[in-house]
Structure formats: structure tokens, C-alpha cells
Amino acid sequence: MLDCAIIGAGLAGLVAAQYLVDRGLKVVVLEGRDRVGGRVENRVLSDGGYVELGGQWIGPGFAALTEIIDDLGLTTIGLPAKGNLVVRLRGQALEVPSSDEAPTLTPFEVSDLGQGLLRLRRLAERLRDDPAWRKSNGAWLGQDLRRWVSTNLRTQGAQRRFAEVYAAAFGPMPKGATLLEGLHQVNSGPDLETMLASNGGLHQKRVDGGMATVATALADRLGDVVRLNAEAVKVAYSDRSATVTLADGEEIEAKQVISTLPPQLAVAMEYDPPLPAWRKEAADKVAPGNVIKAFLIYDHPFWRDRGFSGQSSADQGAVRVTFDTTADNSNRGHLMGFFEGADADSLSRRSVSLRERAFVDSVVRTFGQTAAKPVAYIERNWSSEKFTGGCHGAHFSPGVWTTNGPILAEPEGVLHWAGAEYSTRFNGYMEGAVRSGREVAAAVARDLA
Ligand SMILES: Cc1cc2nc3c(=O)[nH]c(=O)nc-3n(C[C@H](O)[C@H](O)[C@H](O)COP(=O)(O)OP(=O)(O)OC[C@H]3O[C@@H](n4cnc5c(N)ncnc54)[C@H](O)[C@@H]3O)c2cc1C
């Protein structure tokens, strides 16, 4: 019998497997897709360049992931081009020096935003450090996050910028999100203040060759421990062992199982005995975000000719943020953007060519007519992927994190749960996936000892 069967060969699954293999344990990684990496994936282009369809950016504090990248001998690179940022507000495109923080705002608005972020951070710290304060302020902490923002930031410019920074860090603010949930996000995610710096913050570094090379290098080390096209459909478990059934009927027995599927996919599998009702209810309420990551490929990075970095942000349009993600080995220019939230919801039901037109239209409004003729359009709609079902990560519905979140990660006997959504730090990010994979593998190794 195997020591551990790991379901999913994303970052969490691969890191967990490496941890256990390094300790001499017998492990298999069962991956439903015909590739490893999960929400990390490269698409190689005809000219030898590539685009990264999923997780890409490494931010400050991504220590566990950086350690793995270094250990694999891979290198990281910054944003390809220095240059000015373009911000489109109320229909007007403004060029902003890249060193200028919170550039679109008047000095009064900058100060307002700074005060607001500081207040939010102090509250988040208090929430973390002072359980008695949290208890006695329960009702106040349950107030609508948007309402807190509108009463604590006095200027519209600062409120708008706050929403942009918040969305870039954690995804669009869900309707009905409470202040408590916002503070939890602040405590578990990247530093909002750092993200205000246009050339710093979350979107700072990427792996040369793409993050997918991390996943393939980890899988190469693991060799035939990783099995592709091995979709798990059922887990039968007792106090002492578990049997994972694959879609083709094969049964794999192991002393312990680690599922690294996002919560909604994890509970959708068949279990014998069935999972406790609370776990299904909690996971069902975890609505995965909806983001379509898209690229416009140009015959050369025209924005650089004009001193632009390719980074832009806008308050209107289908695609509101762009980045230059041109691969170093390509002569072409790659502009990456996201369809997010309601735009992604409605546009995901339309044709690919309509989404391409919507992206081009947004970019033309920001960079001018030179952007009107890309040579290619590439996208990945993760919500329609059977083995992912949404992205970037899950956004917990009101009350779900606070009531059920911490226990979602609790093992069910020999059944363990790992992945970006279960991590208490960097929840939803690659760093969260790596940390969770390692921590859960360590718990499994302890149980097996
Ligand atoms: C568009 C996009 C952009 C992102 N950008 C960033 C970023 O810039 N920075 C960042 O830090 N994070 C980013 N993320 C998030 C990051 O990619 C994820 O948090 C991380 O990759 C999740 O890793 P994981 O191992 O937890 O889950 P996954 O990568 O989802 O791994 C789960 C694995 O399980 C497999 N699987 C599913 N069902 C089954 C089954 N039944 N049987 C067997 N296998 C199964 C899947 O195929 C997958 O390989 C982004 C995500 C997306 C989608």
C-alpha cells in the first residue's frame, strides 16, 4: 500500500509530493489533466515566445515559492520595460511617470487614500492581535465593507483608487462583503500600500521561461510518481486507509490522501462515507472568482517606442488593467489584461472575437489607434475548465470564511486538504498553494511516523 495518494499536480500537490518523497515515503500524484501545473500554464507561440495563461507574478513575501525557484536553478525577471504608466479616468488617458505613487490623484486625494489604507491596516492588526476587541465589536465588524470605505475615505478619487488596489490584490470586492472579511483579506494577502507603487507591489517578478517551468521541473524530479490523465472520481476512507477510484475504474490504496482541489471541486467528488454536511455547505458557498486572462500580441511592443511601460489602469471598459508581458525571446509585443467580475461574467457568454474586440477597444482608448491592429489574440477562461472551475481563487461569500473557513482545512481522518484556498497566508496565491502543500505534507508525514 502507498503511504500517500495526492490528488492534483498543481503547485500544492507537487510540493507536497516532493516533501514526502524526500522523507522516503511512497507517494503517487494523480492528475486529471494531460499536463502538470493546474492554474499555472504556458502557451508557446509560433515564434518561440510564450504567454502565461494562469498564475505568473511573484510578490514581496513569496518566500516559500522563491526558495523553490532558487532550488530548481530558475531565474526571475522584472517587468520587461521601464516607462510611464497610463491611467484612464473618466474617459481621459493620462500619462504618469512610473516612479510616482498613486499618480492620478490630487495631493488631497493621495492623503485621503493614505489615511484610509492606514486605518484599514491598523484595524486588521487589531483584529489579528486582540480577540477580546474582536468579540466586543462583532456587530460593527459585520458592516458592509463598501459602506466602511465610503465613510472612511472622503474623496471619490481615493475611493475609486482604493477599489482598484483592493481588486488587484484580492479580486473585485464581492457585493455584501463585510468589513471583517476585508480585514481578513488584508491580514492574509499582500500589502495594499506596497501595491500602490506602480512598479512595485504584487506584480513584481516572474520566472524566466514562465511559472509553468517550476511545475514541470518539480514533476521531472518526481518522475513516475506523477500520473497524468488520472482523474480521481471517488474516495472511500476509513480510520486507517483510503481508496481513490479513478475515472477508468482503477483503484489506488493509500494510508493517507491529500486532495489539492479547489474547495468546490473537492467536495463535488464522491466520498464513502459522505463528507459531513457542514463541509459541503461551506464549500458550496465559496464562489470561485471569474477572471478571463487575455493577451493581445502585436508585431512589436509599440508602447515602448512612446516611453510607456505597457502598464495601464482605467475606471471604465471591459479590460481595466494591462501589463507588458513580452517574453525576452520574442520580437513581438505582448499586452496582457483581465476581464473581471461582471464584465467577465457577461462576456464569457459571448464569442471569442467579441471579447477580442472589447479588449482592443479598451486598449485603443488607453494607448491610441496604434493598438488597433494586433496580430493575435489569446485567452484562457478558467471558469469553463473542468479541472479548475474558476479563478483567481475563491472569494468567500459573506460569513463563510469567518464561520467555516478555518475548519475547511481541518483533515477528515486520513483525508487532508491542501491548496491555495486553504492557506491562512497568501490565500488564493501561488505562495499560499506552496505553503499549504508543504504544511499539509508535514502533517501527513507526522501522522505516518
Ligand atoms: C488567470 C490567473 C491568474 C493568476 N495570477 C496569479 C499571480 O499573478 N500570482 C499568484 O500568486 N497567483 C495567481 N493566480 C493563482 C494561482 O495560479 C493559484 O493560486 C495556484 O496556482 C493554485 O495552485 P493549487 O495547487 O492550489 O491549485 P491548482 O493549480 O488548481 O491545482 C489543482 C490540480 O488538481 C487537478 N485536478 C482537479 N480535479 C481533479 C480530479 N478530479 N482528479 C485529479 N486531478 C484533478 C487540476 O488539474 C490541477 O492540476 C492566478 C490564477 C489564475 C487562474
From TrEMBL:
**Organism field:** Tessaracoccus flavescens
Instruction: List residues traversing the bilayer.
Output: none
**What are the UniProt keywords, alphabetically?**
Oxidoreductase
- Report the family membership: Belongs to the flavin monoamine oxidase family.
Q: What is this protein called?
A: Amine oxidase
Top-level taxonomic group: Bacteria
Could you give a GO molecular-function term held by this entry? oxidoreductase activity
The UniProt annotation places FAD binding at E421
